[in-house]
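Narrative of activities, Objective 1.

The group set out to show that a structural description can be obtained from nothing but a protein's sequence at a throughput compatible with the screening campaign. Below is one input-output pair from the validation batch, recorded exactly as produced.
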Amino acid sequence: MPIVRSAQSVPHEIHGARFVSYATPLTGSKELCAWRGEIPPGTKAPAHTVTREEIFHLLVGDLLITLDGRTERIGAGDTVIVNAGATLAVENPTDHTALSWVTTSVGLEAELADGTRITPPWAN
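Output recorded for this entry:
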């Protein structure tokens, strides 16, 4: 039975946020990836278009989520469904770190506004 212990999680940092990877093909998952996002105060991540659906659940804090040009404030316990092909931006306007849990299918890529493609290791 694959169990990923907290000490075995793998942290990654990009655009001012931290992504702590738990479920990937490297840890035994065949179809899904899951990670904890740590979004520090004042972080404004660049908008990016995703190639796979993401389920973004906010565990702690408040965030501004912009999805396809529409901005909503979300709080702890809220879940955002980000469909494949949608453009997402995340901002933490508060003075506390927000924590999220995100799940997607293996193979997620993201494209930034300038055309840069990112293949995040926490989702592949």
